[in-house]
Amino acid sequence: MIRVSGLTKVYAGVRAVDDLTFDVESGKVTGFLGPNGAGKSTTMRMILGLDRPTAGTSCVNGQRYTDFPAPLREVGALLDAGAMHPGRTGRGHLRIGARSNGIPLSRVDEVIEQVGLEKAATRRVKGYSLGMRQRLGIAAALLGDPPVLLFDEPVNGLDLDGVRWIRALFRGFADEGRTVLVSSHLMSEMQLIADRVVVIGRGRLIADTDIAGMLGGVSGPRVRVRTPRPDELARAFGADVGVAKPVEGELEVSGLSASEVGDLAHAHGIPLHHLAEVEQSLEDAYLSLTEGEVEHVGHLGNAHAALTDGAPR
Hints:
Low-confidence stretches: none
Distance between the termini: 51 Å
Helix content: 25-40%
Structural class: alpha/beta
């Protein structure tokens, strides 16, 4: 596993990472989430020994990354797909990694095939698209067939086929018992592939939970109900139950399950035409948790008004 304990990083008096502690378990895909500037990339760089922490420790399977004699055999990582020598070929880039870590050169062709870069392997990296660079970076991460994998925004530049491929790749790694840590801003993807999520904001831990806990723990259950007597039903819930009226004839009830709402309506003789629990998305939960933790906030203002004025609605 990956273990982060009290990790802190201060740049010019600013705490980019602030006493961060969490574990990334084997056999699971862990999503590493947070707004821009939250400290995700800095944390991953410290795990990989690229940045020295101001305080705290990070280790992989009980060792610091810098203590591994052949680190690519222990940890595979993609942090920046642009960090490649543009004059080298894709195959040349991977051969350097293999030689420096005692990995057989035959493994280079295996990972090239695995990521689908056979036709581009002899081309120079400067001619690669962003998606091709991402695939090459993933190939480099897989070179040593490591048990631990870290990826920072791995789907950048990938087309739909590439996104589906990497989704299956991560799921397969976790099912094999490997440790997978993925940082991403794409909440829909994280909801599909992650077993757990670690959420940080301004360098501090906000949440460390499984997906079910993330989806259900922010606002609790919500139920959408349609009835010809909405006002009467709303009064029946009492003051302790949150009730909203999104549209005429409908109520959205917070804090009760669908069965509880149905039982209460039945007890008061109120007919229901529709009753369903509202499934919260990971994006909804994430935005609720990170509200107030975003450093750079854009405002639509007059620009939005100008764009939408007179537009069909």
